[in-house]
Here is the input.
Amino acid sequence: MGDFVIRGVHKAFTTGAGEVVALQEINLRVEDQEFVAIVGASGSGKSTLLNLVAGFDTPSRGDVLMNGAPVTGPGPDRGVVFQQSALYPWLTVRGNVAFGLGLARNRHRFGGTAERDAIVDGLIRRVGLEAFKHSLPAELSGGMRQRAAIASVLAINPEVLLMDEPFGALDSLTRSLMQDFLLEIWESERKTVLLVTHDITEAIYLADRVIVMAGHPGRIREVINVDLQRPRMLATQGQQRFVDLREHVTAVVRDEVSKAEALFHA
Ligand code: ADP
Ligand code: MG
Here is the structure.
């Protein structure tokens, strides 16, 4: 099970320039096995929201509940992937994935070393890094490092994947391969996914629902149900509903960006 609820959440930061309201009155329920994308101008509170669900930070008011229980810190039920995910630079790809698995021994119920090795090798194969399993992170491309990071998060076998612009630093070809890989994982492992992205096409291609955030103070501006069957075709393949949804989300995000700019120049 991997549902979570964000209830009446408010988050303020005190900075040199005064108080910043990063999130105001956020209410959101994400169902088990749902795929939700969050888009919005930079500074609209997307990362703050993801960090609260991850348990890296606590709300100023309100609660975050994971499977009905309050989130009090990070946990193996939630795996987090960032734009530049951390790998242990002194460990090979295999070592990094095995490390995650070691931390999550009781989540896999494996018996001996052979079984553990089979899980590690299976994950490495799933992310297409079989030929690089003995390589160090420094020897990999950005896309490969990100795949290795995802494999080491999957090794923990979390119910929820929290991803903050995970493909943001990748070239467009690698990015589209990674999007399909993420869909495949989501479909086969039935995880719940919360994905923060700048890329509106990516959000509509992947998610069941797209949340558009507005900034200053950070809040949910609109929730859009993506009523497209899977496998989806990208807008470039001429699916009209895809094009309409993308135009709608783009218009809402643009409207928020221009409001934020007006505020900034006032
Ligand atoms: P996004 O991910 O949508 O770009 P963030 O969640 O990073 O937005 O930030 C939302 C707002 O909160 C911004 O105004 C940002 O400057 C502020 N903020 C985020 N984290 C901190 C922090 N640790 N200290 C002070 N201000 C912060
Ligand atoms: Mg962010």
